Amino acid sequence: MTRHCMPRLASLVAVVAVAIVAVVIARLSVAYETVHRIHTLARASRSRSTTTRTMELRSSPSSALDVDRLILGASPLAGIYAPSSDDVANATVAEALALGFTRFDTAPHYGLGLSERRLGAALRAALGESEANARVKVYTKVGRVMKPIDEVTEEEKASSVEWGNVPGHDGCIFPEAPRDVLPVLDYASGGFERSHADSLMRLGLDKVEGLRIHDAETPERFEAAMSGGGVAALARLRAQGKIAEVSLGMNDAAYVLRMIRESAPGTFDSVMMAGSWNLIDQDGYEVLLECQERNIAVHNAGVFASGLLVGGAHYKYAPAPEHIKAKTAQWQALANAYDVPLPAVALAFALAPEIITLCAVGVKSPSEVAQNVAWLRAARDVNPQLWIDAKSQGLLGDHIPTPSLSP
User: DSSP assignment, residue 109?
Assistant: First the structure.
């Protein structure tokens, strides 16, 4: 090698070395930021856990026990567990409207769009199209896109189709769901936008009140919603006036809490938390405190513990285990002792915290609508001593707030 080439080589080596060092520093910086973010979230979580926070209760519990606090859950309109019909859906929705319901909750997931179609048709039949758009507030959900079978790719069939919700497959609880579409999981921005547009077509309405991120309760779904632009897409729809609320619709309280805490303040207007705040399960306690702190309205769903508290046999979408049946029997005995229907006790408990603004009840017939309204009225007469007895019997923890007792 000639001497005049050596300085050039040395310069080149120096440039490469500097570039390598820059890359290493950049990667270390990213790693540091990631670790710092994780530690910050962990410290915030520990701080919240160790700080004493008090659940705010309604000063007058009966103020919440009115029909305008109820949301009609429309999954049963799609024939959950057993077939239903358009006529039954029409009659059920008409009865709900007649008794004062103004809010309805549905999802593409319920019968692969069947619930949305039946709900929208029933609202338009009862009120007319313009009145339906003006008078009621409908919430639906995003996270699954209903695609015609011939539009679904082989890759999607292998990785993204939720086969357990397809008729003819194990686990499908909507036997009347259409067979010409497939539910494709999509928590990214494009999926949320398409799901919203498709829902409006199925409902036959100009708008919905809110969109809830549905079942983002696996690491993959959570990450797609947070990093794939899904949450940001809902914020854009709200900014454009196409929806009034950005919301969540989830069963797992831990994932609800995580999504709230890892999002910027003001991201969520409401949260529908299912099965985590009822007489059997109070896993949503920390969620309620967090929502109270952030002024996020809570819409409580699953208040009858998957129907167990109204005589059903399922709990969290599966046959109830023996220890849960035993706890339900204890609650039934306590309700009997005070001569009040157990579902009325459940509703009184479900609406006690101030932050719970609405309570969802799933109904599949006009008589069930009327029965829920009757239980709500009976909830006003629950004897305060019942809650004292419930805690003394170990049915509720001492820290759990009740309609007439502070935590």
Answer: T
Instruction: Enter the pTM of the model.
Output: 0.86
pLDDT for position 17: 47
Q: What is the mean pLDDT of residues 329-355?
A: 97
Is residue 45 a contact partner of residue 261, using CB atoms and an 8 Å limit? Answer: yes
Q: What is the mean pLDDT of residues 186-193?
A: 97
DSSP-derived letter for residue 66 is S
Distances (CA, A) of 47 to 50, 227, 258, 319, 384: 5, 26, 15, 38, 33
Distance CA 140, CA 75 (A): 11
Q: Enter the CATH code of domain 57-392.
A: 3.20.20.100
- For 55, residues 6+ apart whose C-beta sits below 8 A from its C-beta are 285, 288, 289, 292, 353, 355, 401, 407
CB atoms under 10 Å from CB of 5, counted, come to 9
Q: So what's the pLDDT on residue 46?
A: 42
Distance CA 271, CA 274 (A): 10
Amino acid at 360: A
Q: Which of 337, 353, 333 is nearest to 400 (CA)?
A: 353
Specify the pLDDT at position 60.
62
Distance, CA of 193 to CA of 178 (rounded, Å): 22
Biggest CA-to-CA distance, the chain:
104
Distance (Å, whole) CA 112 – CA 214 = 14
